[in-house]
Amino acid sequence: MPRGNKELSLFLWDPLSRFLASAANRWTSFIPPPPRHPSDPPRRVLLLHAHPMGTSSFNGACFETTHRSLQEAGHEVQTLSLYEEGFQPCMQASDIREYMKPLSDRHDEGTPDKAALLRYIDLLKWCDALIFVYPTWWYAMPAILKGWIDRTFLPHSAFTLPTPTSPPASVVGLVPCLKNIKKVGVVTTYGSSYQVIRYVGDPGRRIIARGLRPLFDAQCTLLWLGMYSCDTASQAEREDFLAEVNSYMREF
């Protein structure tokens, strides 16, 4: 759905059209959500980046474009660059033994980076929009980002297990605890073509669209921006994608 089309944007400002577009997006992330309405307040955005070369890569340019566009649109943005953070993505035996405990109740010696994990969880509870920028490697997110999800989307923080007296469970069988998150975005680069990614099943998209999104607000939408065949893309194609990212993020 191209941005910058005035007639289309005006159409999507209509309440019924926005409702239908949002519902379609929740059914499939291949249908983009409606653009930001002029009356929508600025968002509190948690923006994550996962690339070992940081901003000295094309994926880093995607991150910088996303960050700049969100700020220029008036949103409050907190960033996390997982490689710069030195994040340890591997689950340890102590993580498993105390998995069902609230993180704040775990023994410090078993979770030496507990303070960092608590900060990440505080950011997840602070934001009302969550955006991931990362390269797709072997059809999914980098290990450091998958590990960040493993170690921060925890019981009592991101979800609880259903009980007879708990609120209703989501479609994935968990009771969501991150209902503050109303929007999710992904900007990712693929080395493979669109056809190959679809043949494999696009596991990275499924993890976020079908696995994580049910832990957020029931009306949460997902914007997915992917550049396919990135390794063989021309400079003009890369610039076109950055322009697309800029356009979408200004209306996020």
UniProtKB/TrEMBL annotation:
The keyword Oxidoreductase applies. The keyword Coiled coil does not apply. Residues 44-195 form the Flavodoxin-like fold domain. One of its GO terms (molecular function) is NAD(P)H dehydrogenase (quinone) activity. InterPro entries: Flavodoxin_fold, Flavoprotein-like_sf, NAD(P)H_dehydrogenase_qn. It holds the Pfam family Flavodoxin_2. Keywords: Oxidoreductase. Gene3D superfamilies: 3.40.50.360. One of its GO terms (cellular component) is cytosol. SUPFAM superfamilies: Flavoproteins. Belongs to the NAD(P)H dehydrogenase (quinone) family. This is Nad h dehydrogenase. It comes from Nannochloropsis gaditana.
